[in-house]
Amino acid sequence: MTMFTITEAIDRWGIQDPDRPVYIEKEQTATYGQLKKESDLIAAYLQENSQPQRPVVVYGELEFAMLPCFLGATKAGHAYIPIDAHTPKERIEMILSVADPEIILAVGDWPAIESSAQVVSIKALLQGGSTAFKAAVDLKPVTGDQTYYIIFTSGTTGIPKGVQISHDNLLSFVNWELRDLGITEGMRFLSQAPYSFDLSVMDLYPALVSGGSLTPMTKEVINNFKELFCVLPSLEIEVWVSTPSFMEICLMEPTFDGEHVHSLKTFLFCGEELPHATAAKLLERFPKARIFNTYGPTEATVAVSAVEITHELLKQYSRVPIGYVKEDTTVYILSEDREVPTGEVGEIVIAGPSVSKGYLNNPEKTAQAFFVYQGEPAYRTGDAGRFHDELLIYDGRIDFQVKLHGYRIELEDIDHHLAKVSYVKQAAVVPKYHQHKVQQLVAFVVAAENDFEKEFKLTKAIKEELSQLVMDYMIPQKFIYVEQLPLTANGKIDRKGLMNEVNAT
Length: 505
Fold this sequence. Notes:
- The protein has two domains: 6-293, Rossmann fold (3-Layer(aba) Sandwich), CATH 3.40.50; 403-503, ANL, C-terminal domain (GMP Synthetase, Chain A, domain 3).
- Helices cover 31% and strands 28% of the residues.
- It is built from 16 helices and 27 strands.
- Strands 16, 17, 18, 20, 21 and 22 form a six-stranded antiparallel beta sheet that branches. Strands 11-12-13-14-15 form a five-stranded mixed beta sheet.
- The chain is globular.
- The model has no long low-confidence stretch (mean pLDDT 92).
């Protein structure tokens, strides 16, 4: 695919085979022809009404209309920022304050949030656009080192960080997935991760570049187990992309296997650690499918390593390896900025063409995480790891950042927002592990004076208030009330001590 830009590779399907399906829903199927036409109209509008150096926000859920917005923005030379419609208002406001977008493309109904950006209804734009805008505009799409998309992750001070991914970062990732992970032309992909979570890029762009299609699984279906288990056996998809946590839920349904869902050929996992037991169960359920465990942070464009799961691999390793590093990338294991001998544990540092240029409008955080190593852009992951026979082995976090259900969460971020809740004086959140994997978040809370007779009522009130400030996956599942939080000799909250307490049982 290297002879094409991302835009050209996707557009060629709309030109050569306009009736080819690109987005398959129960009620309707959208085509590549429609994707090209609508993205051209949106691009023409943006070209006439905005400055290309400013990012464009795209607001909505898992729906086809998001795709022409993403492509339309990049065709007109803009980076786009996906914001999921389930995002709390305060988080949206913080993203807008960092990003300073000129235009918000609203696929869903834009909430009443004040912004200097112009809010454009996509429905209205497309309905009136065919006559108002001619697609034959001299477009200058995003290419090379220009930023293609920006995904906001959790930030330690409560301010989200916008990871900037360039066209060439994305091209490096897509070429690798298409070459090494068993993807062929025209495959049908599951689309389950929200577009604001970079796991979605693992299905979105490899599907579009290879003329494949996306089948969405909405939050409503995922949250309703009865409906989810009805939907699973009827799926006509070939490529499954999800976090291991979501797969574990699906495996609770006994008919979710190769016999009942025989279309499934390839499983791709990313976003968090794949438990050994889950990998073994999948091999048993889908003996004819190929199953890949992959690894990578948002800052290095979705994933940089992969390994195919086999019975031999699981026999050899008690903890599933996170893969062989892709050809154009180098992973170094560093300790105090020195490479450690093979087999020893240190920080995983990624260098190569998929490493981001840094965080949007945040030079301080960028300087902390990104640097040049051996002449290449490099990123400090904060993950501990080691090499064994060229296979990368994950060894946990070296800081207080965790993954829960595939979402990356900075514990200090939750602390910061919990402290704003009216019933909370002070709080510290720690992870509870099960088999090396975060099972739940536990909040130790020094409560403010209140009139609640029972702790569970206080917990309910805290959760309700917190839900206005953070994403639902960041709300702790368990609350423990204490007189005061333990401190280290340096006067800092002893988070490690609390972690040991929670994980001792």
